[in-house]
Design goal:
Strand content: 5-15%
Order of helices and strands: HHEEEHHHEEHHEHHEEEHHEHH
Strand order of the largest sheet: 6-7-8-9-10
Structural class: alpha+beta
Shape: globular
Largest sheet: 5 strands, mixed
Number of helices: 13
Helix content: 25-40%
Length: 355
């Protein structure tokens, strides 16, 4: 091209041909060309770029500065990713510092005698009778009620609530080994979330008096609330020490209404709006005469919880969520353990049986 221009104008232009190129374009437009820095000649072998305006060339350092701006967004994205990984690492380090517990106790096989006793109650025929009566809660479990612990059975209220009573007693026996927890029964949330506005504190106000419990909820580490959704069991956990809330669904579902009812968190479906004070705020105010700002609480999300792989183990998953969390342990179980957990739950219930 340089030879061609030189031939047209009788020699090499002093401006290295830029004047000719400029005449081919409208004066209002920018022309970007590339040059060899060593010779100043026009070439497709580029060492650097610069923008040519009419009678003015933009300095290279400004061009370089402008070029770096396109990387700003990517740098922000990388910064967010680094922050997220740092938070995950902090959680891992936190769990590493937690006292280790021998998990073998959680998966200890039943003896032959225990297995025979469980199978006899779950599968034997004969007249209906009460197998277990829990005196403190007045919960009785018949043979037919216990049958829900067979494989593919759907857990009923009696078995779930009796198991929760056993967890309460376990904590009382060994308070240093287990977290201080409160276990609501399966009727609590349904009672609380009724009424015109889907919330009725008065209906459950007397469930948690110090006279009944021997403590107040503000003193607990964690509060467990079973949530029944027609034919599916989920779990809500109020962490009083860390000011967090968890909603665990073994089918990986979500429910924005549960945190609104229990802890008065920011509306998760519309983060700009605050919602009225709800259960835990009213409960602490009523029983302990203290004000807590649950508006600053956040939902703790866990994408790695064990999930059920069938249509009937939701109740069993919920009980094991409670069991592991009340020990301060990670949820280190899966679908393959459910049949064993059913047998073990039946064994623990049958311990209460009077011969």
């Amino acid at each position: 091209m340089g030879n061609y221009v030189s031939g047209l104008f009788g020699g090499r232009p002093k401006d290295d041909g830029l004047g000719v190129y400029r005449s081919w374009f409208d004066a209002s437009r920018d022309l970007t060309v590339v040059t060899k820095e060593e010779t100043g000649t026009t070439s497709h072998l580029v060492n650097r770029r610069f923008r040519v305006q009419v009678g003015k060339r933009l300095p290279f350092y400004k061009e370089a500065h402008e070029g770096t701006r396109e990387f700003d967004r990517r740098l922000e994205e990388l910064g967010s990713e680094v922050k997220l990984e740092e938070e995950k690492l902090a959680e891992l380090r936190k769990s590493d510092k937690a006292p280790n517990e021998d998990l073998s106790e959680l998966f200890k096989p039943l003896t032959a005698e225990e297995e025979n006793e469980v199978c006899d109650c779950l599968y034997s025929s004969g007249p209906s009778k009460v197998l277990v009566l829990h005196e403190f809660s007045n919960i009785e479990v018949t043979k037919e009620k216990l049958w829900c612990l067979r494989p593919s059975g759907w857990l009923n209220d009696e078995v779930i609530n009796l198991y929760l009573e056993l967890l309460k007693e376990r904590e009382k026996r060994e308070p240093k080994r287990f977290l201080k927890c409160h276990f609501f029964n399966t009727f609590f949330y349904k009672k609380l979330a009724c009424g015109k506005n889907g919330y009725d504190y008065k209906s459950v106000k007397r469930w948690t008096t110090r006279r009944k419990l021997g403590y107040e909820l503000i003193e607990c580490d964690k509060i467990f609330v079973p949530v029944h959704k027609d034919i599916h069991w989920c779990l809500a956990i109020i962490n009083m020490k860390e000011n967090t809330f968890q909603y665990l669904d073994s089918l990986s579902g979500t429910d924005h209404n549960v945190p609104r009812v229990l802890v008065s968190m920011t509306d998760l479906s519309c983060s700009q709006n605050k919602i009225p004070a709800r259960y835990i705020a009213e409960e602490v105010k009523d029983k302990s005469n203290k004000v807590i700002d649950t508006g600053s609480w956040h939902e703790e999300l866990d994408d790695c919880i064990p999930l059920q792989q069938n249509e009937w183990d939701c109740g069993m998953f919920m009980l094991k969520y409670i069991d592991f969390h009340s020990r301060g342990l990670n949820l280190s179980f899966s679908q393959e353990h459910m049949e064993y957990f059913r047998m073990r739950t039946a064994k623990e219930i049958l311990r209460l049986r009077a011969d």
